[in-house]
Amino acid sequence: MSAAMDQPVLTTKEALLTHGKRLFWLEGYGNVSVRDITGAAGVDAALVSRYFGGKLGLFEATLAGMDTLDLSAIPDAEALIDALVRIFDEAERHSDVPTAISLALSNARDPEAGPLVMAQLTACWTEPMAQLLGSKELAAMVTCVVFGLSVGEKMLHIEGIHAPGTPEYRAQVEHMLRAALATPTVTVPQGPVND
Q1: How many angstroms separate the CA atoms of 176 and 190, rounded?
Q2: Residue 166: how many CB atoms within 10 A of its CB?
Q3: What is the pLDDT of residue 48?
Q4: How far apart are alpha carbons 21 and 5 in whole angstroms?
Q5: Which end of the chain has fewer surrounding CB within 10 Å, N or C?
Q6: Tell me: the pLDDT tens digits for 44-73?
Q7: Residues 132 and 74: beta-carbon distance below 8 Å
């Protein structure tokens, strides 16, 4: 049986979503045209308007498929650490696989798509993380570890990060997460500060 026969046949709408997600999430909303997406999907460009109302509507529709950690299923910080270590250790590391991290890195500063990305990340990640940890500050620190490690590994190729699948790698990820969760709460003084 050929590889082409093993692939599921996508409807036009599914093909637009699949190729839109891959291109938008990896290359950025502003760097991708409707023609790029419809060319990859093998359909007429007018179908983006028909199904999604336009380019931004298609982008927004791809956000519904954003895979994030189901934080409602995690009871406490220890379980969160275990889940994140496992996710990092087992994650696909192919550059052509769109992830929530690639979505944010490629689109968060875009004037049109950025607000949609940030709203989705807030709803699916930041707010549930703050509820789980009992603090927006701790949620921010964990988020910084997640994004920082991803950038360090995938984009910067920082030496000293051990290979995934090794005990050393898992220990590094766990150490960073524990350090983030041990961050003391910072109290900002109220009123003017005198030198």
Answers
A1: 31
A2: 11
A3: 98
A4: 23
A5: C
A6: 999 999 999 999 999 999 999 677 788 989
A7: yes
In the chain, the amino acid numbered 148 is G
The pLDDT, as a whole number, for residue 191 is 66
CA distance 35 to 103: 20
User: Residue 26: which pLDDT band, with cuts at 50, 70 and 90?
Assistant: very high
Please classify residue 182 by burial: count the beta carbons closer than 10 Å to its beta carbon, then call 0-12 exposed, 13-18 middle and 19+ buried. exposed
Give me the sign of the Cα torsion angle 51, 56, 59, 61: negative
Please state, in angstroms and rounded to a whole number, the distance separating the CA atoms of residues 157 and 142. 21
**Cα–Cα nearest to 23, from 106, 84, 88, 82:** 106
